[in-house]
Amino acid sequence: MKNPFDNLDKTLEHRVRLQIMSVLIANEYADFNSLKEMLDITDGNLASNMKALEKEKYISVNKSFTDRKPLTKYKATEKGRTSFRKHLDALEEILKQQKK
């Protein structure tokens, strides 16, 4: 019998990354400052976790300027959405097995 913990996504096991993906799955996109405020984390913490998600191609990044200020928007990719769903399915399977 396969260990259900093996199905968890290593990238999404990190609390902040799971929170970021939760926000991006629930919304079309989110900008850097909104995510930082919503998750109550530092610029550096958010930036490093966004880089990890971008490296895995779980998110796409769109950089632009609004009134001469930089605006960075993030969006969950199809790969990110699929990985998130599989991670949640694995968690649900773990819970089901614990109830037996």
Automatic annotation (TrEMBL):
TM region(s), chain numbering: none
Record-annotated Winged helix DNA-binding domain positions: 16-95
InterPro entries, per the entry: WH-like_DNA-bd_sf, WH_DNA-bd_dom, WH_DNA-bd_sf
Name under which the protein is recorded: Transcriptional regulator
Source species, domain of life: Bacteria
